[in-house]
Amino acid sequence: MEKITKATKFGIEANKELRSLLVKFRDMINFCVERGLERGISSRFKLIKEVYQEAKQFGLHTHYILNACEVACAMLKNYRKAKRKNENVKKPKAKRLFLKLDNQTYKLVEREDGLYLRIPVKPREFLFLKLRYGNYQKSFLNGNYKHGSVTINLINVILAFSKETRLKSPKRVVAIDVNEENVTCISSNGLVKVYDLKQVKTIRYTYYLKRKSIQKKVRNRKLRKELLAKYSGKERKKVEWILHNVSKQIVEDFPD
User: Fold this and answer.
1) Which residues contact 221 (CB under 8 A, 6 or more apart)?
2) Which residue, of 4, 104, 155, 230, has the fewest CB within 10 Å?
């Protein structure tokens, strides 16, 4: 039996209280990073012991202290590794708004108007985030999956699901060659399939020209940034859709 884990994304509605929580969590991470740098700590357990009492000043549930220390230690380890190669590397600082909680901390709650994620803010005080999802997410919610950790930002909740499954021994081996124009698959029993990717190349070039035009013609910095982000997002979604369909077709053509 093998454990299979899948991270699944849910949408959430805008929430001012969530933004405040994410800002506090980011500040807590940076506080832990500073303490770790000052006192030469990179062990998660030592850092928790060092900052536990002081970190309570942020007024959050104690679970956040443990998770902030985990994130801070990962940043500190990466920083020290980078510093061995470059003495001038900048000190680490958390900028993104996000938080991570283990599966003992949150709860999925069914209400008349939908499914909510309940997370603690303070002891005996909770924040409820309404989840938006479709049939793909339902397959995990209704399936025989265990809930893992959760990562939350301003617009998404990413839930980890896992289950034990028995892996099948493959009946054949498939070699895959990927280039800019196609994916070629050759199985050990002689089956050859070629999947066209020229459309991806066309999309990339089309949006490259759009971004180049925006950078040249749009003088307003804020508007230029918004337009670049908009078209980059459109490009990514179109390419992901094509690649998803190609990968799905490969699985169907080479099932065993």
Assistant:
1) none
2) 104
Q: Which residue in 46, 102, 103 sits closest to 73, CA to CA?
A: 46
Q: What are 11's strand-pairing partners?
A: 132, 156
Half-sphere exposure of 210 (CA within 13 A, CB side): 16
The pair of three-digit structure tokens given for residue 44, joined into one six-digit string: 């998660």
Written as six digits, the tokens of 183 are 């994916």
pLDDT value for 107: 94
SS (H, E, C) 212-229: HHHHHHCCCHHHHHHHHH
- Mean pLDDT (the chain, rounded): 91
pLDDT digits (tens, 9 = 90+) for 138-178: 999 988 889 999 999 999 999 999 988 777 777 788 999 99
CA angle 166, 169, 175 (to 5 degrees): 125
- With tokens 């050859």, the residue in question is 192
Neighbours of 147 (CB within 10 A): 17
Work out the number of other CB atoms within 10 angstroms of the CB of residue 50.
18
Neighbour tally for 162: CB within 10 Å = 14
Query: What confidence tens digit (pLDDT) does each residue in 90-118 have?
Result: 899 999 999 989 888 999 999 999 999 99
Per-residue model confidence (pLDDT) at position 255? 81
To the nearest 10°, the Cα dihedral for 35, 37, 39, 43?
A: 90
**Side chain identity at residue 16, one-letter code:** K
H/E stretch holding 91 reads none
| Cβ-based neighbour number of residue 197 at 10 Å | 18
DSSP state of 56: G
pLDDT digits (tens, 9 = 90+) for 194-237: 999 999 999 999 999 999 999 999 999 999 999 999 999 999 99
